[in-house]
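Journal club prep — side note

Before the paper discussion, L.F. wants everyone to see what a predicted structure for a comparable chain looks like in token form. Sequence:
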Amino acid sequence: MTNGKYVIWESVLDQDHIDHIVNYAKNNPTYHPFHNFQGFSPDWEFVDRNHAIENLLKKALVYFKENYEVEGKKVIFDRQHGNIMNAGSKLAPHVDVYDPADPNAGPGNALVFNIFITDDYDGGELVFENLGESFKMKAGDAILFPGFLLNHGVNEVKSGSRINIINHYFLVDA
């Protein structure tokens, strides 16, 4: 196990790829089932040119396996979605702990791999309450963290659009 901190990967997507995803997201918004903001369900064959995101997902899986798999537990990839948070949107602090009674819950405690697509917005900082930290990521950067250990949320977006791709891995019984 790790100490519950996060890891930042800088410049994982180039500007051309970022622009491509922003254009797709803004032209293909969908209902977001969990929060008061929009989502987007990428057509990965179209969005993930050169398999950059696919390769990042594999790299993240290796990281999570090396740092979180213990006897009796294994890491699996389960879900991926895009978020579009416009002015007024926020995400209350929470932990991603498995709850078998919740139909929206994943199959285990969540490990989060978040790829930031935009940074031309005000507010919208990622907050880790139990670490006393908040910060704004650059477009093209990514962060990996144990969502079940860190109380995390997003401050209110004041202006612009905060677009990111959330990838959930889950720690499940082996």
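L.F.'s comment for the group: The two ends are 16 Å apart (CA to CA). Keep this in mind when we get to the figures.
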